[in-house]
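Is this the right way to post structure tokens for a design question? Let me know if I should format differently. Anyway, here goes:
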């Protein structure tokens, strides 16, 4: 699950599966998860938010069903970035503004 900042918390906006990753990215992410897991709830793992994932997607939709108010569809990982601090993570508001600006341009 990929997340963006909203106030002082992270909210999920997209999901990727192992089918969406190259073998190299999958190995890197698995190693990162092993090193940075801070909590586990069954199969769900909570990580320190310190890996930047650059994605491309088929679309972004406004959604009242999702905590962020947006859902990112059909993600593909383009690049993994170095570890970062929380303030380097984009915000939900930024994604919302870009999404609405893109619609206005149509």
């Amino acid at each position: 699950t990929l997340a963006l900042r909203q106030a002082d918390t992270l909210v999920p906006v997209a999901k990727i599966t192992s089918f969406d990753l190259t073998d190299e990215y999958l190995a890197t992410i698995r190693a990162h998860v092993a090193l940075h897991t801070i909590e586990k709830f069954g199969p769900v793992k909570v990580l320190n938010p310190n890996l930047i994932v650059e994605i491309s997607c088929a679309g972004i939709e406004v959604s009242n069903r999702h905590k962020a108010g947006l859902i990112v569809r059909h993600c593909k990982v383009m690049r993994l970035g170095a570890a970062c601090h929380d303030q380097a993570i984009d915000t939900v508001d930024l994604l919302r503004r870009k999404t609405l600006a893109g619609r206005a341009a149509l």
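Format looks fine. Someone answered above. Worth noting: The mean pLDDT is 84. The helical segments are 23-36, 92-104.
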